[in-house]
Write a structure and sequence with these properties.
- By secondary structure, this protein is mainly beta.
- 9% of the residues lie in helices and 34% in strands.
- The chain contains 3 helices and 13 strands; from the N terminus they run E-H-E-E-E-E-E-E-E-H-E-E-E-E-E-H.
- The strands form 3 sheets. Strands 2, 4, 5, 7, 9 and 11 form a 6-stranded antiparallel sheet that branches.
- The protein is globular, with a radius of gyration of 18 Å.
- The N and C termini lie far apart (44 Å).
């Protein structure tokens, strides 16, 4: 599977094999969502939105921004409107678990990108050893509001096999992994970089 020491993208056949062995775990898994080299993922009902009316109304990377965030839920049969220029954190319906020699790449859906809905500007990498739902960054760069629905297809994950198993899995105590096991959209913990240095 490896060629010249380069990690290879897993095909649908290999993805199914790894799922059957429970080395890759996707729960819940809809078999029809396995694409030629990826698996479609769906939007969960909880969103983390910025409430800019709260004080202080700026983002300080050295401080927790929990006071600026509000957790909201998408109704089963009604849309959430993502306004132009708005940014929210969402979560995949699916929980993902990866072994020590496979990484995931979260990508947006082309059809959604064509209407101005951007998925994960930066956070598309899923480490070996990851377990939990994926927090996804949603931005509307269109000039009109875009509707978001619970359980809609929101992205896709592809898998790459590493040249060797990793020495330290994501979630290892010595790595200080901050998002392992998350079950809902999780705000940044970047500010801990500053407090943990001292």
């Amino acid at each position: 599977m490896l060629q010249c020491g380069i990690a290879m993208v897993l095909s649908d056949r290999t993805i199914k094999e790894e799922i059957a062995k429970r080395r890759i775990v996707i729960e819940p898994l809809i078999p029809d969502c396995i694409q030629p080299a990826s698996v479609d993922l769906h939007l969960d009902k909880r969103l983390l939105v910025f409430n800019s009316q709260r004080y202080p109304a700026y983002i300080d990377v050295k401080r927790s921004i929990d006071h600026l965030n509000e957790l909201v839920e998408i109704d089963e049969d009604r849309a959430f409107f993502l306004n132009p220029g708005e940014f929210v954190l969402a979560s995949t319906l699916e929980s993902i678990t990866l072994p020590d020699d496979i990484v995931g790449r979260l990508e947006g859906k082309s059809s959604l990108g064509r209407i101005g809905l951007l998925i994960h500007s930066t956070a598309g990498y899923v480490d070996p050893g990851w377990h939990g739902k994926l927090t996804i960054e949603l931005s509307n760069v269109a000039k009109l509001p875009i509707t978001l629905y619970y359980r809609m297809k929101i992205g896709q994950i592809s898998f790459l096999r590493l040249t060797s198993p990793v020495d330290r899995l994501y979630g290892s105590a010595e790595l200080g992994s901050r998002y392992q096991g998350q079950t809902e959209p999780t705000a940044t913990k970047y500010y801990k970089d500053f407090s943990e240095r001292s």
